[in-house]
Amino acid sequence: MTTEDIVALLQKMGNEGTARVLRNHGAHDPCLGVKIGDMKPLQKQLKRNYLLSLELYDTGISRLEVISVPSPTLRSKLDIGSAF
User: Fold this and answer.
1) Are the C-beta atoms of 30 and 62 separated by less than 8 Å?
2) What pLDDT digit, counting tens, does each position of 5-62 carry?
């Protein structure tokens, strides 16, 4: 699943009322208005994918980093490799 696929899926799942509540509690725009509980099945499907989590974070959409939990081991290897 690509970043674009995930964003499209979450846009369908989003709710403007939920987005308004999230903005009132500090979420920034763009905010899709998807509850964490609704994202959990997608998170289980994606598992740990560090590169995908970086791509999701780079979109700037609020709370997308919740979906893909980065692997600390892979992060260390990639950061060390890019430092040289």
Assistant:
1) yes
2) 999 999 999 999 999 998 898 888 888 888 888 988 888 888 777 788 788 878 888 7
DSSP 4: H
- 14: buried, middle or exposed (CB in 10 Å: 19+, 13-18, 0-12)? middle
Three-class SS of 14-69 = CCHHHHHHHHHCCCCCCCCCCCHHHHHHHHHHHCCCHHHHHHHHHCCCCCHHHCCC
